[in-house]
Write a structure and sequence with these properties.
Blueprint (H helix, E strand, L loop, with lengths): L1 E6 L6 H15 L2 E5 H6 L8 E2 L1 H7 L2 E6 L1 H11 L6 E5 L14 H9 L3 E6 L2 E4 L8 E3 L2 E5 L7 E7 L2 E8 L1 E5 L7 H4 L11 E7 L9 E4 L4 E5 L6 E5 L3 E5 L3 E7 L4 E6 L4 H9 L9
Parallel strand pairs: 1-2, 1-4, 2-3, 4-5
Antiparallel strand pairs: 6-19, 7-8, 7-18, 9-12, 9-16, 10-11, 10-15, 12-13, 13-14, 15-18, 16-17
Helix pairs in contact: 1-5
């Protein structure tokens, strides 16, 4: 097995974590490819096999992303439709998607080399717009339509499988995957959804009416959103990392992508363990 190693160069502890991981791979006889910049950080390219991030991914049977959740999302975009499994090593604060920490890395390497892991297929969303013909936007967490810099609310008409559903009035709309249910959608009042559930979540941002409630629909559905508001521009973002500006009226069609995110999870821990550890789910301050 060949591992492609990519990381967030701004994260503290990157050098130490990658050094430990590479040491474990060499001890196990595994091959690997380091991102150019990481090879330089580790003391010089002459000591390690290296290539650009894209070429490392091309060579890899598994991609290892060192950083936080944002790093994993960025790596997922690079992997795209190639369906290469991604293992996350958490060097950030929350690390909701990452299954390995520097503290348990040695055991994690042993488990992975021994085949003691599972690969979860996570839903990816795609969006298209008549205003950007030929361009496809992808989101692992969410696709967000918002009012950009304007202080005015927007009206977002929503159609599900061609049938008019509702017009949301407010700051915008989040269309999320189950993976993204614990991201922006959660902070806007959306439900927590277990990550392998086959659904799409739709959550209004700061709705102007009490009746503007989130909804969960099957992932086979097609969502069409039309914004006709009289403001200068609408901001459309994917996973909080890429941005596109549109002049109203704006129409976007959102559906399940043909590929998924393949996320490596170690055997022995459940999604609910992650919820309790990362989000303090279910904790009651009165019992502390």
């Amino acid at each position: 097995m060949t591992f492609g190693i990519i990381g967030n160069l701004e994260k503290a502890g990157l050098k130490e974590a990658v050094t430990l991981f590479v040491k474990g791979l060499r001890k196990s006889g595994m091959s690997f490819c380091l991102q150019n910049e990481i090879a330089e950080i580790l003391g010089g390219k002459e000591q390690f096999p290296f290539a650009s991030s894209e070429k490392c991914i091309d060579r890899a049977d598994m991609v290892v992303a060192f950083g936080g959740d944002g790093t994993i999302l960025a790596v997922a975009r690079l992997v795209g439709a190639r369906q290469i499994p991604i293992l996350g090593v958490n060097l950030g604060k929350l690390g909701f998607l990452a299954d390995v920490s520097p503290q348990n890395m040695e055991q994690a390497i042993e488990d992975i080399v021994a085949g003691k892991y599972i690969v979860e297929d996570r839903l990816v969303l795609q969006a298209t717009s008549p205003a950007r013909l030929g361009k496809v936007y992808y989101g692992v967490n969410d696709l967000v339509i918002s009012r950009s810099h304007s202080p005015r609310i927007i009206d977002a008409e929503m159609y599900i499988d061609g049938a008019f559903a509702v017009t949301y009035r407010g700051d915008g709309l989040i269309v999320s995957t189950p993976t993204g249910s614990t991201a922006y959608a959660l902070s806007s009042g959306g439900p927590i959804v277990t990550p392998t559930t086959h659904v799409i979540g739709i959550t209004p941002i700061s709705p102007h009416t009490l009746s503007g409630r989130p909804i969960v629909i099957p992932d086979k559905s097609t969502v069409r959103v039309i914004v006709r508001s009289h403001i200068e521009e609408i901001l459309f973002s994917t996973d909080g990392q890429t941005e596109e500006f549109f002049n109203p009226p704006v129409e976007l069609e959102i559906r399940k992508a043909s590929h998924s995110l393949r996320l490596v999870r170690r055997v022995g821990s459940s999604y609910f363990d992650v919820l309790r550890a990362k989000l303090l789910w279910g904790q009651d301050a009165r019992s502390q």
